[in-house]
Amino acid sequence: MTTGAAIGAVFPIFRQINEDLAMPNSSSNSPIDSLQHEDRRFPPSATFIKNRVAEPGLYGEAQENRLEFWARQARELHWHKAFSETLDWSNPPFARWFADGTLNVAYNCLDRHVLAGNGDRVALHWEGEPGDSRSISYAELTAEVKRAANVLLGLGVLPGDRVAVYLPMIPEAVISMLAIARIGAVHSVIFGGFSADSVRDRIDDADVKLVITADGGWRKGKVLPLKPTVDAALARVGNHSVSKVLVVKRGENTIEWSDARDLWWHEALANAAPEHEAQSFEAEQPLFILYTSGTTGKPKGILHTSGGYLTQVAFTHKNVFDLHPETDVYWCTADVGWVTGHSYVVYGPLANGATQVMYEGVPDAPAAGRWWKIIEKYGVTILYAAPTAIRTFMKLGREIPQASDLSSLRLLGSVGEPINPEAWVWYREVIGSGLTPIVDTWWQTETGGIMISALPGITTTKPGSAQVAIPGISIDVLTDAGEPVPTGGGGLLVVTKPWPAMLRGIWNDPDRFRKTYWSSFTGTDGAPLYFAGDGARLDDDGELWLLGRVDDVMNISGHRLSTAEIESALVSHPIVAESAVVGASDETTGQAVVAFVILRAKQLDKQTEAEASVLLRKHVAEQIGAIARPRDVIIVTELPKTRSGKIMRRLLRDAAEGRAIGDVTTLADPAVMNSIVDRLAEHRPADFNN
Ligand code: WTA
Q: What's the fold here for domain 65-362?
C-alpha cells in the first residue's frame, strides 16, 4: 500500500486513538479495555450447525474469485435482462455493478414471492404504539404497492425523480419506498425526528418533486406532528419543485390543509387502478438518497443504486441472520429513516421473502417491557437491535425481559456502534437464554450493507469484536502511513476492493465524494481505497475490533451527528458568540453531545447562565431534531485554541470525560483549560428527558 495523505494531520483524533490504545481510559464502554483480556469464546452449537444457512465454503469461493462470487449472489435475484459484466471499475471511485442487466427492485421484493406461491405468507406484522396491529401478507403488500405506484404515476412522478418520505414506522413507509422504487424514482427518506429546517435542507438539496408524510405518528404515548413540520419546511421558498404532498392518516391530529397541494393517501389509493406491471430498470438506476452527517455542517446525500445494492443486502440478510423464510419471524428495531431500516427492514428481508415485525413506537411505551411483549406475541426468532438499547435494558434490570417468554429467539444481532463485551454477554445470557449466537455487524450508510460480521453456525463468536469481513468483502487496517498494521495493532479501517452495495456518490457533489472517502490511501494497483472514517484494531487472532470514528463525526445512540452541524446550530442563536462541540463517552448512548458555548454577554449570573443552557439545548433540537439535543451545554468564557486559532477538541473531550487533561503546551493560553474544568464541575447535568 502507498499513502496519499498523512492521516495524522487530516484526522487529529487518530492520534488520540493511538494514545487510547497505549493507555486505556477507565470507561467500561471502551472496547479497548476489554480487548486486552477478552478470552470468552462461543463456538456454534451442533444444532445450529445442522440447520445453518451460510456455507463455510463461501469464504473460499469468494477468495478464489470475488467477482464470480458476487455474480452468483446477484443471480439469486430476478433479472428482466441478465447482466454480462459483473463490475466496471475502469473509472474509480465510480463503480458500476451488473451494469448491462435490468431489474425491478420492488418486483424482487414482492411479485416474485407471490408468483412463487408465497402470497399468503405474512410480510409485515405491524404493531402500532397504542396497541393496534395489522398483519399484511406478501399478496396484500404487493397489491398496495401497485396502487401506490399508480398514484405516483398519476401525480407525474417520472423515473429518476426524487420523492421525500417523512413518515412514522407504519406500513405505508414500506409501501411508499417500494412504490417509488417500482416506478424507477428515487426516495429520500427523512427520519421523523428531524426538524423543519433539516427537512427543508434535504428537500432542497435533492430537488424533491413530491413529499409523502402523515398527519402524525405515535411516540411515547403522544402524537408527533409530522405534516405541520412538512408545511413549515415547504413554507419557505426553496430550490425544490414540490407541488403535491400525500398525507397518510395516522395521528388523527388536527392539521392545516392546502386543497391545491395536499392529498389524502387513503383516498388517492382507493381511486387508483389496482394493476401495475413492473418495468425493468438498469442495475445502476438510482434507488435512494439518504442523508448522513459528515465532518462539515452540511449533511451528505449518499446515493445508492439498484442491482448491486439489492444483491448485497439480500445476501447478507440471508447469511448473517441465518434466515429460514418459511419459519423465521425477524425483527429489526431500526427506523426506516436510517440506513439500517432501508437495508434490513425493507430491501434485505423483503427480497428474501421474510416475515418480519415492524413496530411504530419506543421500547418503553406504555411500559418498559414493550419489546419483550412483542417478541412473545409474534414468536420473534431473530432480533437485530442497537447497543444503546441493550445497555438501557441492562440498566433497567433483567426482571423486565424475563417477565416475557423469549424462548422463540435463536439469533441476536447488533449494529450502529461498538458493543462493549459486558453488554454483548448480557444480551446473550438474558435475552438469548445463554444459547443464541450474536452477530455484531459493522457497516455504514455508505457501505449500503453489512461488511464485517460473524456468520452464525460458522464463526466462533467473541464478545465485543465485529470479527471478520463477510465473504466477498476486503477489509484492511492501515497505519496513517498506509501500511497494514500487524496483528495486535490499531489503525484506520479501509475497504480495499469495490463491493456491490457501495455508495455511488454524494448527491450533486462528486468532489466531496472523492475527497471524503477516496483520497487518503491508494492500493498497489493505483486505485484509491475506501476510507471509512473508523479506527479499528486487529487482535491476536487477526479479528477486527471497531474503535469508533476518527473524524469529527459523533455516534449518539447509533446515530451519526457531526460536531460542525451542532456548532452551526448553536451559533445561529443570537445569544451565542462561539461554540465547540464534542462527543463524550456515555455509559448508555455510547457518546453524548457536550457543547461548550461562549455567550455574547460575558458577565452573567449563574441563574441566567443556567437558563441559557436550557434554552440552547432546546434550540438545537428545534434546528436539527431531538436526537441532536446536547446532553450538556457548558457556558464558558474561553475555548482552548492553538496559536493559529484552531479549537483543540481533544482537550475538551478529556475534560468532558473527566480525564486528566492532555498536553496543553500548544495552547495560546494554557490556563484556559483550568477554568473550563471548573465550569464542568459546577455544571449540574441537565434534565435528559425534556
Ligand atoms: C458505527 C449504521 C462499531 C461506525 C449501520 C460507522 C459501528 C458508523 C458498528 C456508521 C459496529 C456501525 N461496531 N461501530 N457494529 N456499526 N458503527 O452510517 O462508526 O448510521 O462508521 O450506519 O456507525 O453509521 P451509519
A: Rossmann fold (3.40.50)
**CATH annotation of 1-32+474-541:** 2.30.38.10
Alpha-carbon span 284 to 504, nearest angstrom = 9
Q: What gap in Å lies between CA 308 and CA 260, rounded to an integer?
A: 39
**CATH fit for domain 552-690, picks 3.40.1160.10, 3.40.50.11740, 3.30.300.30, 1.10.10.350:** 3.30.300.30
Q: What is the pTM of this model?
A: 0.91
**553 CA: nearest ligand 1 atom:** 19
Rounded to the nearest whole angstrom, what is the distance from the C-alpha of residue 308 to the centroid of ligand 1?
20
Distance (Å) from CA 536 to ligand 1 centroid: 12
Q: Where in the chain is CATH 3.30.300.30?
A: 552-690
Q: What amino acid is encoded at 476 in this protein? A: D
For residue range 562-592, what is the model confidence (pLDDT) as tens digits?
998 899 899 999 999 999 999 999 999 999 9
Which residue has the CA at smallest separation from atom 1 of ligand 1? 417
For 120, what's the count of Cα atoms within 13 Å in the CB-facing half-sphere?
Answer: 1
User: Ligand 1: residues within 6 Å at CB?
Assistant: 292, 338-340, 415-418, 440-445, 466, 532-534, 546, 548-549, 555, 560
Q: Quickly state the pLDDT bin for 665 (edges 50, 70, 90).
A: confident
Compute the Cα dihedral for 43, 47, 48, 54 and give only its sign: positive
